[in-house]
Structures are given as structure tokens and as C-alpha cells.
Amino acid sequence: MCMSLPHTIPAESSAPKAHPKAHIPLPYRTSATRRIPTRTQVRMCLRLTFAARRMLAHARLAPSLTPTPSPLLLILPVLHLHTFPPTPLWTQSIVLQILRGIRHAHMNSIMHRDLKPQNVLIGVAKNQVKITDFGLARCFLPNADRAYTERVVTLYYRAPELLLGAPIYTSAVDLWSVGCIMAEMVNFEPIFKSDTEIGLLFRIFEKLGTPNKEVWKELPGLAHFSDQFPSFPAKPMQELVPRLANDAPGLDLLSRLLTYDPSCRITARQALEHPWFQGVTL
After folding, report:
1. What range(s) does the Protein kinase domain occupy (predicted)?
2. Based on the number of CB atoms within 10 Å of its own CB, is 247 exposed (0-12), middle (13-18) or buried (19 or more)?
3. Rounded alpha-carbon distances, angstroms, from residue 191 to 180, 186, 194
4. Nearest to 173 by CA among 222, 128, 92, 110
5. Coil, helix or strand for 258?
6. How do residues 210-269 score in pLDDT, each as one tens digit?
7. Hey, which residues are catalytic here?
8. Which residue, of 14, 70, 143, 200, is most buried by count of CB atoms within 10 Å of its CB?
9. Which of 191, 195, 48, 170 is nearest to 113 (CA)?
């Protein structure tokens, strides 16, 4: 819910200053509410609130998106706990639940646009996944040519179409992020790392090969694409994720998630039907 908070500007005084949140009613001092200063942001917030309520109305179909009273763990610390090494079946279960949550969001015309390990919570008792932080989420219409900002998604998990400046993109950006999370769960470290956008783009090229218009026909028209980009050959996926070297279905799913052309990238619905999840229980 969006609500406006009381706003007062204290006069300059030599007396001790009051607590900066003293004017905010107690129930809201520790909440995540904030003031929306423009009408545009108000309309945007109302649209997202309506969409979120519509999603929660069908929460029984998507437990990955619903609140829970049980203790939760961030997925990132779990990956680095030596006392809790994730098993292959555990990894499959977590990826499956992430995809179920994203499928539900996409079915309700919502792109998350900031999927990363820090926004995936795991229940301590039953390993139930919760997807959090819809602050960058946006409503979308299928097949609608609507421009969005490409300045979304934390850098390591940002899809190549965003890095190359595509103003029009689809919910496929979330599936690229899922692929990055899946690879990180297997490797215990991000698959693509850099401090800059161009640096990350080259790290992707070094591992997946430099794309061309044969594999991605819209590539030449992207704002940040250049014919002068270095040409790298693609490395075998089993070299990028050695722990999946003997897991052909896992390598296939990861390859489909990390596909350059967003129109050819696997969807959440298709991914949930992938053979890698056969026999996996939640």
C-alpha cells in the first residue's frame, strides 16, 4: 500500500534536534513506506499495488510469492555455508520454485526486473522459496512495443539486451537472471562478474561467444552494439559450470536460459516442463 506520511520542516534552533523520524507516527517509523512526490509515481504505484493484489489473490498457485511467518535465509549466504553444501536435488528444487514464482508473475503481466540471489529467500524449515523486492517490477502487455529503461537488474544478473541499450524488452530479462542464479548456485560464485557494463558485456562474450546477427537478428540495431567488439569463440557450457559436466539436462536448461536472443530464450512455463526437473519434489 502507498500512503503519504506527515511532513513537517523543523525551524532552525539552538535547542537539541529531535529524532529525524519523530514526526512520523510510531507504527510507520520502521516500515517500508515512503512519500510519492509526483502524480506519475502515484499512478505507477497504484498499478503495481493492483497487480500485486491480483497476484496474491491467486497465492495458492504460487507459494514462491506469498508471505510466510517461518524463518527465512537469503540464498546468497546459504551458497557459502561450508556446513550446508547444497546437493544437486536441493539446487533443482530451489530453481524450480524460483521459476514457478516467475511464471506466476509473468502470467499476471509483471516483470520482476531485479532477480538476484539477495532477492531470493529460503525457508529454514522446509526450504520453501520466496521471491522478494518488487521495487523495480513493471506491468507489461504481451507483444506490446513499450519502451522501458534499461537501467534495471543488478549488474551481474543483467541480460545482454539491457547491457546493449534495448529500450524495448520483454519478461525474458527475468529468465536470463534465473540462469545466472542457477549457475551461481552450482559454481558458488557469479558466472559473469565485472564492475562496469562494458566489462560485464565482454565477460559474457568471453564465455558464451560474441553474438552476431545470425544468432540474434536484432543485434545490429541495438544502441550500444558495435562492429568493433572483440570476437570471442563460445566456450563449452560444461567448462563454465564443471559441476554440471555429467548432467546433460542441466546443461541444456542453462544454455536455454542464457540464450542471447530474448525471443529464443526459454520461457518460465517452458522451463518448468524441462526434463531437468523430472522427479523433483518441493
Report:
1. 1-277
2. middle
3. 6, 10, 10
4. 110
5. coil
6. 999 999 999 999 999 999 999 999 999 999 999 999 999 999 999 999 999 999 999 999
7. 114
8. 200
9. 170
Helical ranges in the chain per DSSP H: 39-57, 75-79, 88-107, 160-163, 172-187, 197-208, 237-240, 248-257, 268-272
Interval 102-150: pLDDT, tens: 999 999 989 998 999 889 888 777 788 889 888 888 888 665 555 555 5
Q: How far are the Cα atoms of 158, 199, 216, 246 from residue 188, in angstroms, in the given order? A: 18, 21, 30, 18
pLDDT at 153 over 90: no
Identity of the amino acid at 109:
S
Cα–Cα distance, 130 to 74 (Å, whole number): 10
- Residue 78 near residue 86, CB atoms below 8 Å: yes
153 is written with which cell numbers?
537488474
The predicted pLDDT at position 168 comes to 86
Fold of 35-277: Transferase(Phosphotransferase); domain 1 (1.10.510)
C-alpha cell at 24: 512520523
